[in-house]
Design brief:
Elements: E1 2-6, H1 11-16, H2 18-27, E2 32-38, E3 53-57, H3 63-67, E4 76-79, H4 84-92, E5 97-103, H5 107-113, E6 119-123, H6 127-132, H7 141-151, H8 167-172, E7 180-185, H9 196-206, E8 213-217, H10 222-230, E9 236-238, H11 243-251, E10 253-259, H12 262-269, E11 274-278, H13 283-289, E12 297-301, H14 308-325
Parallel strand pairs: 1-2, 1-4, 2-3, 4-5, 5-6, 7-8, 7-10, 8-9, 10-11, 11-12
Helix pairs in contact: 2-7, 9-14
Length: about 325
């Protein structure tokens, strides 16, 4: 039996797909299990022992044309992302059973999905719907994906997120202090209800916990990280880490503080208490669908605007939340 899984979007979403991958493996232990990713997110699963093969679609290549090389020997294909690219991958395999999901109000996607899939699941986690009806239940993305692979016959449910780090990864970050507060500096700390200046003030206030503070950041935040480093509010500011070294740095943490990025799910995979600041818009959906998974956590809503009072409240909320998860 040959099963193909496809997820070509973001790193955090692929981390949230690792329980579904493990569930398929546990349910079909003798099957050949192939994963199709993007060149960008491949790093999440390139070491995953539940997979027999991982193929990354080159940048600029057609997903359908790339996946057509698999055609003819696939029994089941599952799109783990509600995206046209993943639907195209699944369709190109020619599998007898082709599954995917989309959101209930994406009517065009629902209409066209029948050209690609034999089975389409519907998610109620629609931004417009939940914004207007916040009382409606929202399921975590992990749960949505576990139910999706169950439709393909997977019965041995596995719920743990997975990132496979090695002793070499741990050695590469062994100079960082253990038991630290790890703060991930991403773009949403710098705009739309927050700012670099406020983030520096926040890090200064987080000193009250008498924990070492490690700031990690992506390449895009290199300039802001340099300014933050000169402010002397962190014990280490680290940006030149591989994905697995980044996860190993989180493993050393006592607590992780981040905005809504892949860092949220790296922290969950490393089993670390987490404080996440979600955007003001679509908060009712985001804070539930993409919350930290199966770890102690607290969730903060960013203010709608970067007013003096709103920024001060954001700092208070984050500090209080850190105190609550420590």
């Amino acid at each position: 039996m040959h099963i193909v899984l496809s997820r070509t979007d973001r790193i955090g979403d692929l981390i949230l797909s690792t329980p579904a991958i493990a569930t398929v493996r546990a349910s079909f232990p003798a099957a050949r299990l192939t994963m199709v990713t993007s060149a960008y997110n491949r790093v999440v699963v390139e070491r995953n022992p539940n997979l027999d093969a991982v193929y990354a679609i080159p940048r600029g290549a057609s997903p359908g044309a790339f996946a057509s090389a698999l055609r003819g020997n696939v029994d089941v294909a599952i799109a783990l992302a509600p995206r046209a690219a993943d639907f195209a991958v699944v369709a190109a395999t020619g599998a007898r059973s082709r599954l995917g999901y989309t959101y209930v109000r994406r009517y065009l996607a629902r209409l066209t999905a029948r050209l690609y899939l034999t089975d389409l699941a519907l998610s109620q986690a629609d931004p417009w719907l939940i914004e207007r009806h916040p009382e409606r239940p929202v399921r975590h993305e992990v749960e949505e994906l576990l139910d999706l692979v169950a439709r393909a016959g997977a019965t041995q449910r596995v719920e743990d997120l997975r990132i496979d780090i090695t002793d070499e990864d741990r050695e590469a970050v062994s100079y960082l202090p253990t038991g630290a507060l790890v703060f991930h500096l991403a773009g949403n700390w710098l705009r739309a209800g927050s700012s670099l200046e406020n983030t520096i003030l926040l890090l200064g206030e987080l000193r009250r916990f008498n924990l070492p503070i490690i700031v990690t950041h992506a390449r895009e935040q290199r300039a802001e990280a340099a300014l933050l480093s000169r402010a002397n509010v962190a014990d280490a500011v680290q940006g030149d880490l591989t994905f697995h070294q980044w996860a190993a740095a989180f493993e050393r943490a006592r607590c992780v503080v981040t905005v809504d990025t892949a860092a949220t799910h790296v922290a969950s995979a490393m089993r670390k208490p987490t404080v996440v600041v979600f955007e003001h818009r679509f908060f009712a959906l985001s804070c539930r669908e993409w919350a930290p998974y199966r770890v102690p956590h607290a969730i903060v809503r960013k203010p709608a605007r970067a007013t003096t009072g709103g920024l001060a409240q954001l700092r208070r909320d984050v500090v209080d939340s850190v105190a609550g998860v420590l």
